[in-house]
Amino acid sequence: MSVKILHTSDLHLGAKLLFLGEKANDYRKQLKNTFSKVVALAISEKVDIVVMPGDMFDSPKPEVETVQFFANQLELLVNAGIYIAIIPGNHDFYDEFSVYNNEVFHKLGDKCGIITSDEISAWKIEALSLTIYSRAITKKKEVRSLLAGLKRATDTKFHVGLFHGSVQLNDQANAPILQEEIGKSEMNYIALGDWHGIKDVSIGKTPAWYSGSVEPLAADQYNSGSVLIINIDEQKTEVKSVKVGTFTAVNRKIDVSGIKSLQELKNMVVEDKNLNLLLTIELVGTRDLELNTDELSRIIEGPYWLRVVDNSQIRFDEQTLAAFPEETIVGQFIRLLYEKKTKGELSQELVDDALQYGVRILTGKQ
Amino acid sequence: MIIKRIKIKNYKKFVDAEFKFYGGVNVLIGENEAGKTSLMEAITDCLFADPSSKSKALSDKIFSWGGKSEPYLELEIEHKLNKLLLVKDFAKKTASLVNLDTKKEVNSFPETQAAVKQMLQISNKEVFESTALMSFAEIAKLASSDDLTYVLQSAVLTQDKVNVQKVLQNLRSEIKDLKVGMDRPSRYPGDLKKTMDELEHVEEDLKDKLEILSKANKATLQGAEVDTQLAKVEERISVLEQLLNNFGQREETEGRLKEVNEQLQAIQKGLTAAEKLSAKSAELKAAYAKVSHYDKEETKQLIIKATGLQQSVSSLKQVSDAQNNEKVVIKPLAKKFPLLSTILIGAISLGLVIAVFIFAETSDLFKLAVILAYIVEMVVVIGRGLVPSVPSTVKESKPAIEEQQEVIKRELAEILLKLKVNSVDELYTQRASVEAIKAQARELDGELRGILGGRTIQALQDEMNKLLVAKRDLEHNQLTPDVKQARLTPEEYLRTRRELDTLYLDRKRMEKQSTTHLVQAQEATVSQEDINRLEEYQTVLRERLNLSQRQLAIKELVLETLSDSVQLTAVSVKDQVEKLISKYLPRLTNGRYKQVRLNNDLSLEVFADEKEDWVAPTSHLSNGTIDQIYFLFRVAFCEVLTKEHGVPFLLDDPFVTFDEKRTEEMRKILLELSKQHQILLFTNSMEYEEWGALIKIV
Q1: In this complex, do A18 and B536 lie within 8 Å of one another by their Cβ atoms?
Q2: Pick from B7, B181, B491, B595: CA 20 to 30 A from residue B230's CA?
Q3: How many pairs of residues across A and B have Cβ atoms under 8 Å apart?
Q4: Does the complex come out with an ipTM higher than 0.85?
Q5: Range with the lowest mean pLDDT among B122-131, B163-172, B221-230?
Q6: Beta strand B679-683 with B25-29: parallel, antiparallel or unpaired?
Q7: What is the spatial distance between Cα B668 and Cα B159, in angstroms, rounded to a whole number?
C-alpha cells in the first residue's frame, strides 16, 4: 500500500508583476498554462492527491475569471478521481469574504478539501488511508509556531502535513515554522508553501519540502519552476522534482575587468539559446573607458526579459590618464570628473556614466 | 614643415606661375599689386581649401581675374624628411597628397586634410589665418577678448579629434530638446515632459480606477454586513413567526381536543348506558326464559280453559248454594239474556273486523291477529253464554251438579298440575309476570334505540376508536412540546405581533440595501487585473522617466564639466603663451614692457612700469607696441599650438610701424624663430632684402 502525492504551491494567480512591465499580462497567461500542465501531469502520473499549501491566488479576492479557471482545473483533477487539499496562504488568506468560500469550490464535492480552520485540523481520507494535517492562514497575521502540537491523530497508514510559512533557518527569528517542530511531527511528509524556490528542509526522520512556484515571479527567483511528486509507502518517502515551468530566472555575474569590446562581453553572456530566460546580467569589476556597457542590453537578443545591472566602475589609473594628456580637453574633462568623483558629491554611477559618455563624444565615437 | 615650391595656375593674379622657397627666412618682394596677397592666399588655399566645394565666396576669390579656367594649386612640402606633393585641382575637383619618395598617395579631401592637420597641427584656414598668417592690416584685429578666446579655443579645441564647440552646441541642444515643455507648455514636448505627462495621466487613471474598485469592495463589504444583519432579522422573524404559529396552533388544537374529548365523553356515556341496558335486557331475557311457556298459545288456551272451569266451579257452587240457601242472586243482563248478548257481541265484533279489513291499511299479520282476536272473543262470549245453562242443569238436581263439579275440579286440577301451579290465581300471577317482563323488555328496547340512534354498539365503538386516534394525533403530533409551550398573554401576543411588523419593515429595507450594494459592486467596471496592468505600465513609464532623467543628468554633467574643461584647457595654454610673449617682449620694447598676462577671459594685459599696473594694450599703448605684442601673441599661439612641428609663418609686412631699432631686434628674433619655422616674409620694401633668401614676385 502506498500513496502518491503531487505537491505544488505559490501559483499566485493574478499576481501583479511590476518588474515585467508590459510583458506582465502575457506572463500571467503563461502562468495559467503552466498550471494546466501541472494538472495534466497529476493525471498522467496517476497521483492520489494534489496538495497545495497556500498562495494559489495572489489575493484573497481574485478576478472571477481567474477563480473560474482554477476551479475548472481542479474539476479536471476531481473528475480523474484525484483528491485535492488546499490551504489559504498569506496572500490568499482566509476570511468570510475569501475566494475559498466561492460556490465553484463547493461544487467540486468531497474530494476537494479546502481547509480553512486556523487551528491544526486533521482530514482523514479513508480511501487512501491518509490523513492530511493542516492549518489555514487567516486574516489575523500572527507570528507563532504553526506546527506546534502537530502529531498523528488517526489510525490511517499515512500522515501528511500541509503548511504555509517560512521555516526558521539560521537567524530568521520570526519564522513561523520551527525546525524542531518538523522533526517531532511524526509526519510521513510535510508539504510547505511560501517560498518560491524548491527547497528541502527535512529534519530528522521527517521529509519536508517547499515545492516553490511553477514559474519565477521575480527576476531573482532562480529555483522556481518545479513541482514535487512524493511516493509514500510503509517503509519510506520518496521525493522527486519535476520541471514544469517555461521560464527560468538566471543571474549572470560578469567581471568586465579586462574586457575590451562589447562583442567580447556579449559573447560571454549569450551561451544558451533559451528564449524563456528572465536574465539579469550583473556587471562587476573595473571596466575599460572604451567599453560601453549601456549598449549591452540593446545588442543581446533572446531572453524573454533582460536587465543589465551595471555595478562595474570605470578603470581610472595612470594608464588611463596617460592616454589623455592634461592639456587636451578630454584630458581636462576626465580629470575634472575624477575630481568630482573623489569629492563624492555626485553618485559614482552618474560620474562614471558621464565620464564614458563624455569621452565617447569627445573622441568622436558617438 | 617646409614649403619647397608652389605651382599656381589660373588663380587670382597668376595664370601659370611657380615659386621655389627655402628653409629659414624667405623674403618675397613685389610691388603693390604684384601678387603678394595672391601668393599668400594660394598657399593657404592649397593647404586648406576643398576643390569640390561649391562655395560662391571661394570661387569668387580664387578664380583668376582674367582667366576662364579653373585653378590648379600644387605645393611641394618637406616634412620630417619626407617629400610630399599636395595638389588641389579645382577643375577636377580633386585633392591629393603623394609621398614623392614612397609614392604613397591619398586622394580624397578628408584624407589630405587629415595629413595636413598632422603636419601643421592646425586643421582649418581660420585658425591658420589667426595664427601663422600675420598681416599688418589684420594683426591688431585680435584685440577683442572674444576673438582671442575664439582663436585660442579653436586652436586648442581642434587639437582633439572632434570639434568641441560643436560637441558643446550639440549637448546644449540635446538638453534643450529633452527639456522641451518642462518650463512652459509646448505642443511638442521633449521625452522628459512627454513621459511625465503620460505618467501623470496613468497615475490619475489609476487613482480613479482604484477609487472605483475600492467603492465596489466597500459596497461588497457593506452588502455583506447588511446581509449578516438581514440574516439576523430573518432569523428573529422566523422565531417570532414560529412562536405565533405555535400559539395559534396550540389554541386551535386545544379547542379541537376539547371538542374531541366532549364527543368522546358523550359516546362513552352512551356506550356505558347502552351496555347497562343490554345487561338489563339480558336479565329480562333470562327471566322471560323462565316463564316463557306461559306465553305459549297452548298455555294460554289452558289458562282460558282453567278460567272457564273455575267459573264453572263457581257457578255450580252458586247454584248449589242457591238451592241450599235460596239466595237470589242478581244476575247481569248477559246472564239474564246470554244468547242475545252473545249474538249481539258477535255481530258488533264481526262488524268491526270487517271495518278493519275494509278501511284500515294494515298488515296481513294484523289482520290475522284481528281475526284471531275475533275468534278468541267469540269463543269466550259463546263460552260464557253457554255457562249459565249449566246451573240450570245443575239446578235440576243436586247430585248431578256435584258430579259435574267433581269432573270440572279434576279437569282443573289436571291443568294446574300440567302447568305446575297450585291455583288458578297463581296461574294468573305467572301470566301477568310474563306480560310485565315483555312490557319491560319493550320499554328497554325503546330506551336502547334512543341511545344508539339507529346505530349499533359496534359502530359506536368504532367511532370512539376513531376519536381516540384523532385525540392521540392531536396530542402527539399537533401539540408538540414547542406548540404546547407557546403560551402568550394577550399583551405578549400584541407585543410580538408589533415586533414582527417592525421586523418585516426592516427586512424590506435591508433587502433593498443589499440589492443596492450588490448592484454597486457588480457595476464596478474595474477589475484588479486592470489595476495590475496600469501599475505595471506605470512601472514602465517610471523606468522610462528615470532613464530620461538620468540621460539629462549625464548630459548636464558632461556639459558642465566640458565647459569647465574648455576654460581650464585654455588657461593651461595661457601660461605657455604668457611665457613665450614675455621671452621676446623686453627685447622688442627695449625693456619697456617685460610682462604680459592673459586673464581667464583671455584678454591680454601688459604691465606698464610707468603706471605700475596692468593695462590693456589697445587702450594704453602705441600702435607699434600693440603690433609688437600681438605679433608675439600669435607667435606664442603657434608655438603652443604646433609645438615641435614648426608651422611656416606667413608674414605680410607686419613691421611697418616698427622703428629701426625694433626692426633690427625683430630681424634677430625672426632668425631665432626660423630655426623652428620656415618664414615667408612678404614685403614691397627692399629694406628686408638682406634678411634671408630673396624671391621676387613679378
Answers
A1: yes
A2: B491
A3: 114
A4: no
A5: B122-131
A6: parallel
A7: 31
* Alpha carbon distance B338, B326 (integer Å): 22
The share of chain A scoring above pLDDT 70, in percent, equals 95
Reply yes or no on whether the pLDDT at B332 is more than 60: no
Task: Please give the distance of CA B649 from its chain centroid, rounded to a whole number.
Answer: 84
In the three-class reduction of DSSP (H, G, I as helix; E, B as strand; rest coil), residue A146 is classed as coil
Model-level pTM? 0.60
Task: Give the three cell numbers for residue B305.
Answer: 280453559
- Check A361 against B167: CB less than 8 A apart: yes
Cell triple for residue A342?
A: 573623489
Question: CA-to-CA distance for B643 and B640, rounded, in angstroms?
Answer: 5
Q: Sorting pLDDT into bands at 50, 70 and 90, what band is B145?
A: very low
**B545: DSSP letter:** H
Residues B561, A337: C-beta atoms closer than 8 Å: yes
Distance from CA of A364 to the nearest CA of B (A): 6
DSSP code of residue B46: H
Q: What mean pLDDT comes out for the span A7-35?
A: 93
In one-letter notation, the amino acid at residue A322 is: A
- Per the CB < 8 A criterion, the answer to whether B116 and B86 are in contact is yes
Rounded to an integer, what distance in angstroms lies between the CA atom of residue B115 and that of residue B121? 10
- Nearest CA to B419 out of B377, B405, B411 is that of B411
Nearest by CB to residue A332, choosing from B221, B224, B565, is B565
* Distance in Å, alpha carbon of A3 to nearest chain B alpha carbon: 38
Burial B60-70 (b: 16+ CB within 10 A, else e): eebbbeebeeb
**In the structure grid, which three cell numbers stand for residue B582, read together?**
614675455
The answer, for A348 touching chain B at a CB cutoff of 8 Å, is no
Q: For B50-68, what is each residue's pLDDT tens digit?
A: 888 877 666 666 665 555 6
Which of B198, B193, B213, B532 lies closest to A21 in space, CA to CA?
B532
Interface test mutation site (partner A, options B168, B565, B568, B642, max chain A beta carbons within 10 A): B565
Instruction: Tell me the pLDDT tens digit for each residue of B346-370.
Output: 788 888 888 877 776 767 777 788 8
Which H or E element spans position B41?
helix B36-48
Contact yes or no for A362 and B562 at CB 8 A = yes
Judged by a CB distance cut-off of 8 A, whether residue A365 touches chain B is: no
According to DSSP, the residues that pair with A282 across neighbouring strands are: A253, A309
A362/B543 touch (CB, cutoff 8 Å), yes or no: no
* Cβ–Cβ gap A333/B529 under 8 Å: no
